Amino acid sequence: MKKINYKKILHLLIWTFSISGLLVSFSFVSKSEKQISVNRLNISILNNTENQFLSEADIRAYFEQSGTKILNQKFAEINIPKLERLLNVHPAIENAEVSAELNGEISVNVLQRTPICRIINADGESYYIDSQNKLMPLNENYSARVIVVNGNLNEPFARRYQLTVDEIAGSEVYKKVSLLDDIVAVVHVINQDSTLSSLIHQININEEQEIELFPAIGNHKIVFGEAKDIEQKFNRLKLFYTEGLNKADAWNKYSIINLKYKNQVVCTKK
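Above: the chain sequence. Below: its structure as tokens.
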């Protein structure tokens, strides 16, 4: 017959009572937390040096306009997930996180959306495409300095804003008429290259639905053609600028630089 290990049973009972006590304690703290009133709202905009679509005052006003009361409310009356959902539908916000502190403070951390280009369609309607490849409305407080894309573009904001550029490109309805995926592919390469990003400021879509680029230096246009072999075309362009336009008067010598043809740069003199 086995001996009963009273020492082991005692340890087990002690652990059981300790855990039970902790659970009761946590339950008590949780209930007491809910009675704490919010005495401070801390708002942090993480990338306000890159973009200035939002200020702390804008976010406070946004809460007020939505009928959301935070200050002097008890934690029991504050729905943190609901606050996050409210912020994350704001057209200038990419992501928002909200947390509550035991000292009565609510902290809001906001990441603004980052535009990569501005679209101006054939009807004169204008909006951004952001770094997540989503359509983004303009902001009355701030205008981002990004590549402007205009010309023969049938890209209405209202019919597309709920979709990403990738979803538009994959849609049976839009993929045959939309050029947004081609535009974004070209813009991404430009923005990732310091030489190209300082050089190319405007993209135009011509009547043949081809891409044309307009540089900040020189009075010429660059016929890019379709969004194919993008990096190879830009490599040829940079090589041409480095070796073909190395004379003082060369930048104004040509009216057209054509990159459409494979492994060639065809130039038209003025």
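The CA atoms of residues 186 and 230 lie 7 Å apart.
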